[in-house]
Structure formats: C-alpha cells, structure tokens
C-alpha cells in the first residue's frame, strides 16, 4: 500500500518534471528554428549582395553566439529527459500497458530525442501479421518526417531518419531487436523473454486489464417498450449493450447499466381504460392478461372506433400523470406483464440491467422544461414549444412541449441526459440504439451541449448505432407468415437447432443430460450473440441458424469446440490445473518452436484488441481476435505435440511447457468469451 503510494507520487512528480522540461525544450527548439530560418534568409540576401548585409551580419553573429549557448543547455536538458524516462521506464515495466501503447511511448520519445523539432510527433506503430518475417510491429514515422523536412528545405532519406530514431531507442524489456528497412520502416521484434514472463504472469494472476483512465459510464441499452413487441432491434441492443458493459467493467470503469423502458406515454390511457372494462376487479386481484400484444390490439381497435372509450382513454392519461392511485395501479399491472416477459429473455441471455424507464423522468421533465425556459432556449412554433439543437438554428428542432401541452421522446431524453450527468455523475454516456434514431440522438447531444448540460471537455457521449437484422431473403426479418418474430420463439428455435446439431455429432450419447443441456444452451445463445457481435455493428446482417451453427469459419460453434479441445488436452495431460502455481514453479513456458512463438505473440495482442474495441465501441475486433487465436492454436497443435502416445494409445511423454501454452490460450479465450457473452463448456 505505502509502496504503491510512493510509486504513484514519484511517477506523478517525474511526469510533471518531464513536461516542464519538455516545455522548456520546446522553447529552445523554436528559437533554434528561428535561427535556422534567419540564417537561410541571410544566406539568400548575401547571395543577392543586399546592401544591408552588414546589419544582418552583426545580428547573425549575435544569434550564433546565442545559439551555441542554447545548444549547450539543450544537451543538458536532453540528457535529463533521457534519465527521467529511463527511471520512469524501469518503474513502469510492469504496468499493464498494451504492447502498442508501450511501443508508442518508446518511439515517441525516441523521435523527440532524435529530432527535437518533431517533439510533438506521435509514433505510428502498426502490428504486423504474426507470420511475417519482418518483425512483429513496425514504426512508420520516418517516411512522413522525411516529407515534412523536405517542405522545410532539408533533404534527408527516410531510411536515414529511421536509423537516427533507432539510435535513440532506450533499452526496452519488450524489444528483442530492431531493423530498419530500405524504405525507412523500423521493424520491431518482440522479446521472447518478455512474452514468457507476460504469459506466466497471466497464468498466475489471470488476465489483468490494460491501464485506462477510469470513468463512470452509463450504458442505456435494450430499452423495449411496454405492451409492444420486443423486436430483433431490441435484441441487438441487448446483446451489444451487455457486451459493452462487460468490456468496460473489465477495463475497470464504473458502469451503470440502464434499461430506458418505454413505460410512459399516451398509449397507457387506452390500455388502462380497456383494463378497467375487462378486469373490473383489477385493484384487488392481479389481472390475468395472457397476451399483452393482443390486449394492446383490442384496446387500439376500441380507441379508433368508440368515441366514448376514446374520451375515457384521454382522461386516463391525465389521471395517470396526476398519479391517481387507481390509474397508477392499472399501469403497474400492465407494466408487470411486459416486465416478466422481458426478464425471461434477460435471464436466458444472461443479461443484467437496471430498470429506469421513461416514467422515472415525469417530474424531471417539468424541471428540464423550466431549466430550458429560464435559459431562453424555448421558442414557440405553431402551438408547440421547440428548441434548436445549436445556435445556427438549422436542421430539425426538438419538440419539448407538444401543442396539447404533453411532453415527447425529446423531452424525456433531455431530462434523462441531465439526470445522468448531474445526478449519476456519469462522464461517459452510451446509447445503444438502432441507426434509425441517429438524428434524434445527434439533436439531443447538441442541445445538451447548447444548454450547458454537457461539457465537451468533460463528457463523452456515444450513440452506438447498429443496422438491421435481415431474413435469409435479404428483407426485413419476419416469420414465414409475415409477422414480427417473437424473441422467445427465436431463442426456442435456436435451442432446437443446437440440440439437433449435438445429436448429429452423437454428443447425446457421450454427455450426461445436464452436460447436454449446458452445451445446448451455450451453442444456441452463444451463436445468436456471436453472430450479432462478429459483424461490424453498423451494417445489416442476415439471420440464419444454418450459418450460425457452422463449425468452420468465424462462428461461436467453432470457437466453443476449439475451447473444449484445449480443455481436453489439459485434462489428458494429467497436470492438476487447480494448482497452477505449483505447475508454474516446476515448468516454464518455452517458445522455441515457430508455432509456439506465433501462438504466444497472438495471445499477447489481447490488450491492444481490448483497447481498440473500447475506443470505438466495436466488438467485432474481439471476435476476429478470438477466431485468430483459435486458428493459430490449431496450427500450433497440429505441428507441436503436447502429449505423445504410443501406438496402443498410452501416454509416453507430456510436454508440460506446451500444456502451459494451451492453458494460457484457454485463459485468454475465457476472458474474451465472458465479454462476448459466450458460456465456455469444458465438454461438448
Ligand atoms: N434514451 C433512449 N432514448 N433510449 C432508447 C430507447 C429506445 C426506445 N424505447 C425504442 O424502443 O425505440
């Protein structure tokens, strides 16, 4: 604890010192630059034999003197920066920086040291294909720097610049060697020692999260509407939202999961009026509404055809908003029916979410309206009160108050964003909602900035949008009879398909009934989730159980099978993985074989991938990574024996180092599976 505290203080103070030194260094560099420019001008002037050469000459001599002094100070500062960085580097070796981040840090300072005038240039580091013989990562700055210099009139080949940068790279525990290509790329080879240490640590302590700036994040996802069908759009939001929460939780953010249920609005007037007629005793006895959609349709029919009913329905909207006990009770009953249905889906999909529906904001809507009015941001327009998202007053305005005095979806989202920022104290708000609502969210975000709820320097807001789910005919996803697909039916169908597949493989003969159900659920729900997550969320995708359940290619089934295979290798080795510490004390991971090394390097990309996913909130990168891990593992397993058996199937030797590598692969996959919502099964 004290050690940590001490380390943090030292780190902070040295970071402070570095930045001070850097500012000073910058000033010096600028001066040097000015000098160089003046020199150039003077040279030209001399050539043209300008008359006021003498004046310039005096000035030049003075500048040159000044320059010499500055150069000396510059050398002193440069030296102390390097020293600071070295001590810092030593202290932070064990920090959970991803490999790319670490390399970025090292190369950025090397560029600054080699070319102080480029001290603001950030290193560009790219991962290279794991099979490439030209290193594992690359620094690509030299070409760009050469162009920049050319503009300033300095001709220097990219390759030479790369060599200069290379010379300034301090010793790094993760770099084995560097090579400069003729084009000016710096090829970076990872150190095997570092890889062994990282994998061993991971086996001992589990996958530790990469270091990020911790934030309170509110994720608004799923959010279906009461009495309406929870459709595939909500399914996508539920799956993507849950995974985003898991990812951000793993990155140590403080995550609030919110179900912004559509539980408020004028439709409740007719539902309540209809409930009163169908179940007059609803106050004392919970009404047995079997099919709420049917109930909704019936009440809508009456609303459209019966004027008396319509009047009563309008009146019920008023009594509900005023909080009259009977109407509230009726409303609660109706919400409960939907709530139970939604909860069943969440349980099946292993989704955790906290309900905070639109009704929650009823009183807060009044307040946000007042807030906007006081700021002078509401304008009358044809009986309504509107607010323009920005000062240019272009685009579509938000309707804050309708002409009948009621509030809208815009009003409740303004109240919600205010509550999230001011009361939940969220600094990052994520809305996982289909692309169809992007105009709405753009307007809300702009308006919230305009009225001062959001501050761009403090708050991050994202509309995590996604495309449609299509049927196999490429059209909107519907049942054969043309109805919208009920989510519960869809999950049931997935269960049937997965059972059929397991039976075709004869798994029902091998697994116990419990194991079979476990495998069936893992495959069914896993494939539905994974198909959704493995596509770039922006695009539409075609829903097909046949494709989802393919055991080749980038599918959940392929990943789950590979995972079970890895588990069975470990099981057959006879090593006791419940006591991993003891195994690690006896055996080391070795990375001598080409395929062992390739697998290790692939596994070590995990942190980079997680950071990449969190940056744009795209999970398909993580799916691609899992697939790559499984493919590379299979290559390794094909080429490297882990357990050697004789002709009669008896084990004659176990390569424990490789078993450890298998286990490291399983650890990485388990972490990814958790984020993607896949349930790993050890037998399948
Ligand atoms: N804060 C929000 N507007 N969240 C999304 C709500 C989604 C809405 N209930 C719908 O089904 O379309």
Could you explain the architecture of this structure?
- The protein is an alpha/beta fold.
- Among the domains are: 2-204, Gyrase A, domain 2; 267-351, no CATH class; 487-676, Isoleucyl-tRNA Synthetase, Domain 1, CATH 1.10.730.10.
- Helix content is 58%, strand content 9%.
- The chain has helices at residues 2-47, 53-92, 99-114, 141-151, 158-167, 192-205, 232-250, 267-278, 292-305, 307-321, 325-349, 362-374, 409-422, 438-450, 487-504, 507-510, 513-534, 545-548, 556-573, 580-586, 594-603, 606-616, 620-639, 656-676; strands at residues 125-127, 137-139, 175-180, 186-190, 216-220, 254-259, 354-355, 379-381, 384-387, 398-401, 428-432, 460-464, 469-470, 541-542, 643-645, 651-654.
- The strands form 5 sheets. Strands 7-6-5-11-12 form a 5-stranded parallel sheet, sandwiched between helices. A 4-stranded antiparallel sheet has the order 1-2-4-3. The chain has a 3-stranded antiparallel sheet with strand order 8-9-10.
- The longest helix has 46 residues, at 2-47.
- Arginine binds at residues 220, 223-225, 260, 262, 413, 416, 431, 433.
């Amino acid at each position: 604890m004290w050690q940590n505290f001490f380390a943090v203080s030292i780190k902070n103070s040295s970071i402070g010192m570095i930045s001070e030194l850097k500012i000073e260094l910058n000033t010096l560099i600028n001066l040097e630059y000015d000098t160089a420019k003046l020199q150039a001008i003077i040279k030209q002037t001399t050539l043209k034999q300008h008359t006021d050469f003498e004046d310039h000459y005096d000035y030049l001599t003075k500048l040159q003197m000044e320059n010499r002094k500055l150069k000396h100070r510059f050398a002193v500062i440069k030296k102390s920066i390097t020293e600071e960085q070295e001590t810092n580097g030593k202290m932070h070796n064990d920090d959970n920086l991803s490999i790319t981040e670490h390399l970025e840090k090292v190369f950025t300072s090397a560029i600054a040291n080699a070319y102080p005038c480029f001290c603001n240039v950030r290193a560009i580091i790219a991962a290279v294909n794991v099979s490439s013989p030209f290193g594992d990562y690359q620094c690509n700055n030299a070409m760009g720097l050469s162009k920049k210099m050319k503009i300033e009139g300095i001709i220097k080949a990219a390759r030479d610049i790369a060599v200069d940068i290379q010379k300034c790279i301090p010793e790094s525990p993760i770099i084995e060697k560097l090579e400069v290509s003729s084009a000016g790329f710096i090829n970076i080879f990872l150190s095997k020692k570092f890889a062994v240490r990282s994998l061993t640590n991971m086996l001992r302590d589990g996958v530790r999260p990469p270091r990020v700036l911790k934030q309170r994040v509110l994720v608004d996802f799923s959010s279906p509407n009461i009495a309406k069908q929870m459709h595939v759009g909500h399914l996508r939001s539920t799956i993507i939202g849950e995974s985003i929460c898991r990812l951000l939780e793993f990155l140590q953010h403080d995550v609030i999961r919110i179900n912004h249920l559509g539980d408020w609005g004028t439709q409740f007037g007719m539902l309540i009026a209809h409930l009163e007629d169908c179940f007059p005793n609803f106050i004392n006895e919970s009404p047995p509404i079997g099919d709420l959609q049917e109930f909704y349709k019936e009440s809508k029919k009456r609303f459209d055809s019966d004027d008396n009913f319509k009047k009563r329905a309008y009146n019920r909207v008023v009594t509900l908003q005023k909080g009259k006990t009977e109407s509230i009770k009726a409303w609660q009953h109706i919400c409960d029916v939907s709530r139970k249905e939604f909860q069943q889906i969440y349980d099946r999909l292993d989704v955790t979410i906290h309900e905070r529906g639109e009704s929650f904001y009823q009183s807060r809507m009044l307040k946000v309206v007042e807030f906007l009015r006081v700021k002078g941001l509401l304008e009358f327009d044809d009986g309504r009160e509107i607010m323009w998202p920005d000062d240019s007053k272009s685009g579509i305005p938000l309707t804050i108050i309708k002409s009948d005095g009621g509030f809208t979806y815009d009003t409740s989202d303004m109240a919600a964003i205010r509550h999230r920022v001011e009361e939940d104290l969220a600094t990052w708000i994520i809305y996982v909602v289909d692309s169809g609502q992007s105009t709405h969210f753009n307007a809300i975000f702009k308006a919230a900035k305009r009225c001062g709820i959001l501050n761009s320097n403090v708050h991050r807001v994202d509309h995590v949008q996604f495309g449609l789910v299509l049927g196999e005919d490429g059209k909107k996803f519907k049942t054969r009879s043309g109805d919208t697909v009920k989510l519960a039916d869809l999950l049931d169908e997935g269960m049937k398909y997965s059972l059929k597949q397991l039976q075709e493989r004869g798994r029902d003969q091998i697994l116990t009934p419990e194991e079979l159900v476990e495998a069936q659920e893992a495959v069914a729900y896993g494939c539905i989730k994974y198909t959704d997550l493995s596509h770039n969320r922006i695009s539409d995708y075609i829903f097909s159980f046949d494709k989802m359940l393919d055991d080749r290619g980038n599918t959940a089934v392929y990943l789950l099978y590979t995972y079970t295979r890895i588990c069975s290798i470990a099981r057959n080795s006879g090593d006791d993985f419940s006591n991993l510490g003891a195994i690690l004390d006896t055996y080391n991971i070795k990375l001598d074989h080409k395929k062992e090394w390739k697998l290790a390097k692939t596994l070590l990309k995990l942190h980079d991938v997680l950071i990449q996913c969190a940056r744009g909130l795209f999970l398909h990168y993580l799916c691609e990574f899992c697939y790559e891990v499984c493919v590379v593992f299979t290559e390794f397993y094909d080429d490297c024996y882990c357990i050697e058996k004789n002709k009669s199937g008896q084990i004659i030797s176990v390569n424990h180092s490789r078993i450890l590598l298998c286990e490291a692969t399983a650890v990485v996959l388990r972490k990814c599976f958790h984020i993607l919502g896949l349930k790993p099964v050890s037998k399948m």
